[in-house]
Amino acid sequence: MRVLIFCSGNYSLSLMAEAYLNFYLPEEVQVFSLHTENQPVHKLAIQTMAEDGFDLSQSQTKHLVEIPNINFDYFILLSESEDHPFPAEIRATKQTSFLLPTMNEANENNNLADFHRLREEIKKSMLLFVGKAFPKMLNETE
Prior knowledge:
Layout: E1 2-7, H1 13-24, E2 30-35, H2 43-51, E3 71-79, E4 91-99, H3 103-109, H4 112-133, H5 135-141
Parallel strand pairs: 1-2, 1-3, 3-4
């Protein structure tokens, strides 16, 4: 089983979502995340996730071309708007999206409170995804 997370804006958020899915799902589910450009992980994303027990300090965003040309079972889009298209290069059986309306502002404002809020939105969104896509697995981790 393979899950791909794509973030259309703030490049650190797909890594945050990947950390939560790796925590919530068993090891046999492979989780990948990518962005449209390679960037260092935002220092406030690293700090915010460390407060929740995750170390993103060695993580790096991955570009679309770095993900193997494979089929995914699930594709998750993190976007600021509903009209952001799913990338045509991605082959996935099921697609879903989560709106994070101010995700780019968090990067631009360098505001820790914005990253805290986004972390909680991502955590909640990933739990919703797991509950719908893998309900039995979620019950086993509780």
